Amino acid sequence: MNQKKWLFLICGVLLLAGVIGSILVLRRPRTSQVEIVQDGRVLYSFDLSSEEDQTIDVEYEGRVNRIEIRDHQIHVLEADCPDQVCVNMGWLDSAAPIVCLPNHLVIQFTEGSGSLDAVAG
Ligand SMILES: [Zn+2]
């Protein structure tokens, strides 16, 4: 009796997923420029496409986030924060920044600059 309802619901969810997916793809920035921000202050800013593999320690009130750059990608390798959300988020995706709330840390792609857009166009 409820089968039609379920079918309708599943179709709706699939449609919604498609719409959201295409928005995310369209919004994907063309930049590989990344910044590490703490309390609204930019600590590090670099271009992942040309950055060497390395680890960066960022400290906040004695707690450390160890950030790793590998193969032109960036993630939080280890963190002293209680929730470990930043570690579990894995590699930085352009759709969502990596956030460590306890340590006031954000790792994000920066907005593409005008010059980059000109090259891409
Ligand atoms: Zn964290």
Would you give an account of this structure?
This protein is an alpha+beta fold and 121 residues long. The protein folds into 2 domains: 1-30; 31-110, N-utilization substance G protein NusG, insert domain (mini-chromosome maintenance (MCM) complex, domain 2). 30% of the residues lie in helices and 36% in strands. It is built from 3 helices and 7 strands. The protein has helices at residues 3-27, 85-88, 114-120; strands at 33-38, 41-47, 54-60, 63-70, 73-79, 98-100, 105-109. The protein has a 4-stranded antiparallel β-sheet with strand order 2-1-7-6, with no helix packed on it. Strands 3-4-5 form a 3-stranded antiparallel β-sheet. A hairpin with a 4-residue loop joins strand 6 and strand 7. The N and C termini lie far apart (53 Å). Residues 114-121 have low confidence and may be disordered. Zinc ion binds next to helix 2.
How is the topology of this model organized?
Layout: H1 3-27, E1 33-38, E2 41-47, E3 54-60, E4 63-70, E5 73-79, H2 85-88, E6 98-100, E7 105-109, H3 114-120
Antiparallel strand pairs: 1-2, 1-7, 3-4, 4-5, 6-7
The structure holds zinc ion.
